[in-house]
Amino acid sequence: MFEKILIANRGEIACRVIKTARRMGIKTVAVYSDADRDAVHVAMADEAVHIGPAPAAQSYLVIEKIIEACKQTGAQAVHPGYGFLSEREAFPKALAEHGIVFIGPNPGAIAAMGDKIESKKAAAEAKVSTVPGFLGVIESPEHAVKIADEIGYPVMIKASAGGGGKGMRIAESADEVKEGFERAKSEASSSFGDDRVFVEKFITDPRHIEIQVIGDKHGNVIYLGERECSIQRRNQKVIEEAPSPLLDEETRRKMGEQAVALAKAVNYDSAGTVEFVAGQDKSFYFLEMNTRLQVEHPVTEMITGLDLVELMIRVAAGEKLPLGQDDVKLNGWAVESRVYAEDPTRNFLPSIGRLTTYQPPAEGQFGEAIVRNDTGVEEGGEIAIHYDPMIAKLVTWAPTRLAAIESQAQALDAFAIDGIRHNIPFLATLMAHPRWREGALSTGFIKEEFPEGFTAPEPEGQVALRMAAVAAAIDHKLNTRKRGISGQMRDPSLLAFQRERVVVLSGQRFAVTVDTVGSDLHVTVEDGAVVPVRSDWRPGEPVWSGTVGHETVAIQVRPLLNGVFLQHQGAAADARVYTRREAELADLMPVKENANSGKQLLCPMPGLVKQIMVTEGQEVKNGEALAIVEAMKMENVLRAERDGKVSKIAAKEGDSLAVDAVILEFE
What we know:
Blueprint: E1 4-7, H1 11-23, E2 27-33, H2 40-44, E3 47-52, H3 63-73, E4 77-79, H4 90-97, E5 101-102, H5 107-114, H6 116-125, E6 133-134, H7 141-151, E7 155-163, E8 166-171, H8 174-192, E9 197-201, E10 207-215, E11 221-233, E12 236-242, H9 249-265, E13 271-278, E14 284-290, H10 297-304, H11 308-316, E15 333-340, E16 342-343, E17 349-350, E18 353-354, E19 357-359, E20 364-366, E21 369-375, E22 382-383, E23 390-398, H12 401-413, E24 416-418, H13 424-431, H14 434-438, H15 445-449, H16 461-486, H17 492-498, E25 500-505, E26 508-517, E27 520-525, E28 530-535, E29 543-548, E30 551-560, E31 563-568, E32 571-578, H18 580-586, E33 600-602, E34 607-612, E35 619-620, E36 625-631, E37 634-639, E38 644-649, E39 656-657, E40 662-666
EC number: 6.4.1.3
GO biological process, one term: lipid catabolic process
Cofactor: biotin
């Protein structure tokens, strides 16, 4: 077994590998760029080596720097994590030339399966069902349009060396193929150093299901069940679960056996994932193979009880797999939410900045459920523009799917992040969505269920009642604390007056009375219902945790003037708590109107201006492309929201802009 390994990656996956290596008694070496000098993975590792500037092309993607770090520290093997160099055939070859072991598949398997075009050819030769498409080199946008016309729309344009949703576009028409081809090539070049793309038929109403495989260097390959990854935005996974609510045992076996056959055909000898696009009728087609550890591997670990990183390390060291196919047992259900630094209300555009608050939910077993949080950040850390915007992977396990979803929902409510925009409100909304809970999924789920984009829903029904009761309890505690500090509690009559309040929650009014009963507060609402409220919450804490009625509840809390901002199960509202007289007067206050910025194109996230597509004085139509801004390895096309004329261009190509910076103005 290795004595020391280097992790050629950063963030949560580097931390994840370090944890397993530490448990196995293996020392670890981290590498870091200028942007990651103070990162968590650097502090966790036994040693750390600086490898260059912040851009990945000058640090994490430079093979020579990784090899030099191995020589400098005496690392015997390298775990690549995912992304970066993990699927570059040249990487394990270069390591081998210097006597360093690659903790991943052999170069031949990467060449055959890691390249999306070559993998489809290999699958076809192995008689695996594949999606209709063109696997040759596409020379131009016009060539891509011709191919798409022959295949039939919609089509998917995809980077050959891609992954993580980068270099991928769905096109419904010839014009969309032309634009998508250029964007996919550009993203593929900047993210993977390879601008080749291919075109294939896009299956309507598809589901994304993948099979986890693991092989050793002795010819043994097994599959470890499936994961459903159909909840996606911009072709990037948001929520994953294992097993899939679609599959039955027979379909699972067929998909698993195909995945194993394909892996054996290329002598696969590590952890990898064979991805399928599945129809609602359980038909399935080979999509691609990822020759690395997947982001969503924790859900497989949770239902199998296996540590995939440990298996990868042992296999790389020459050990045989410690189990056969019949030994693989699936137990319970696991759900994973990817917590991203992005703004779901702005079409999920990336967000950067400092994590002024970062308090994930407690990990461990709670009743029958288990909570796990894989992360690589900490409070006070900074989310930089140079890398993927994922902050954490929140995973819950329970005996049943609905129990795992309920545990996930509660854990998301208890996950406090401030300083940047993030997608936790969206994830929490998804957990309560009836279609998600029923398992009626497809890769078009988000587009279909949120056609106008995401806006945090206003609280209704029991959620609103629960939030109003908590707002009243918080107000009561704050007032009691303030009166104690100022000495006003000497007169008991003042307390009686303060018991009667009005909670205004997003326009809804709740007349409440708050009574202290032992260690509980009893909040009586206007219809006479009494809600017991119990919590150890203290002023200043970002999460209110306790019980409301007989339910265990976590609610996000942020202070406001004369009230609090609350977020629970995705619903968000300002809760103003008044005396009865204050409520009457508040109704008379004027509402401040927001300024209209419709005559400006603002940068929706911090990013680099890649292209300005219009000129001053140009007439533009609604939907016309105006500029391209790159952030976190994704190119975002900004379009006109109405007809108009460009009066001024305030930014130029190459500018790094802050969020809401003016790009251009209209007359």
